[in-house]
């Protein structure tokens, strides 16, 4: 397990220096995504094109104000998107595909904590799972050709989804109830989102073999993901997080360690908060992975 000082040293050494990386961070205006954005900007020293996709332009502008000044045509931009709607995600991915030449880093970290029951979206899936999984799949699926362009040029190309690389299991795949209409519970919703992320990166890695896909657990991080909780629980959750969690910048360094590490090959990877391979990860069968792929395409494709 690398120490945090070793992570910092590795990130400084492995940061891309000969290229201008393009980074798209979905959920990059808060929480872990913001931490990753700030760390990427720090190491790029103004020589990067960073796109933050989120809900709040005000938050994005506040983040950009803390970044190094962009140099020689580099830039920072905000794209507004309600990721619970696959139609809205499609609008954003088509826009990005029409004007970006490549993507080196795609970071997916949208999330929330909620005690609400199943809340169907316009796509017929639960709101929480839409945020934690379906939108992430659609961004990765739609933008994969831009990632391939970077890899074809010999540049680093990484997709990182940040959720829970420990919990996913084959029991999260219910062939007769993929959208959890029959078996919904908060626990099942969390298991499905995690398992589908596991399966999706394996399926995507198979179809895009020149791109590296990772699913990382960030550990306990002091974010505002509990913003939608009832007031009392939100206050308690915030207090506990303050006492035992790590800052978002620490999370950002640890996640960027996975993005920058040149020793990580292409394919699908499951990572700890420190950037190590998850041990004892339950493997999904090829049939489970294909079921997740086909279901995800049915929900997300053509939107």
UniProtKB/TrEMBL annotation:
It holds the Pfam family adh_short. The keyword Oxidoreductase applies. GO terms for molecular function: oxidoreductase activity. Keywords: Oxidoreductase. It comes from the Eukaryota. This is NAD(P)-binding protein. The lineage of its organism: Eukaryota, Fungi, Dikarya, Basidiomycota, Agaricomycotina.
């Amino acid at each position: 397990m690398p120490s945090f000082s070793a992570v910092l040293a590795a990130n400084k050494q492995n940061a891309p220096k000969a290229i201008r990386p393009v980074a798209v961070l979905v959920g990059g205006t808060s929480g872990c995504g913001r931490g990753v954005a700030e760390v990427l900007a720090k190491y790029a020293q103004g020589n990067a094109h960073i796109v933050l996709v989120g809900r709040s332009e005000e938050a994005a502008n506040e983040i950009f104000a803390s970044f190094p000044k962009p140099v020689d045509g580099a830039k920072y931009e905000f794209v507004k998107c309600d990721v619970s709607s696959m139609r809205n995600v499609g609008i954003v991915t088509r826009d990005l595909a029409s004007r970006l030449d490549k993507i080196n880093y795609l970071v997916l970290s949208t999330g929330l904590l909620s005690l609400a029951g199943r809340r169907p979206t316009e796509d017929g899936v639960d709101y929480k799972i839409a945020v934690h999984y379906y939108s992430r799949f659609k961004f990765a699926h739609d933008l994969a050709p831009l990632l391939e362009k970077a890899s074809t040029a010999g540049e680093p190309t990484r997709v990182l989804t940040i959720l829970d690389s420990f919990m996913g299991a084959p029991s999260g795949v219910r062939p007769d109830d993929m959208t959890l209409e029959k078996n919904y519970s908060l626990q099942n919703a969390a298991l499905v989102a995690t398992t589908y992320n596991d399966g999706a990166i394996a399926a995507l890695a198979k179809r895009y073999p020149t791109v590296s896909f990772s699913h990382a657990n960030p550990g306990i991080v002091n974010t505002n993901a509990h913003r939608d909780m009832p007031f009392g629980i939100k206050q308690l959750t915030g207090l506990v997080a303050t006492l035992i969690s790590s800052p978002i910048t620490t999370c950002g360094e640890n996640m960027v360690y996975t993005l920058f590490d040149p020793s990580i090959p292409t394919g699908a990877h499951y990572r700890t908060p420190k950037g190590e391979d998850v041990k004892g990860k339950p493997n999904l069968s090829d049939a489970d992975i294909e079921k997740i792929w086909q279901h995800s395409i049915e929900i997300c494709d053509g939107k």
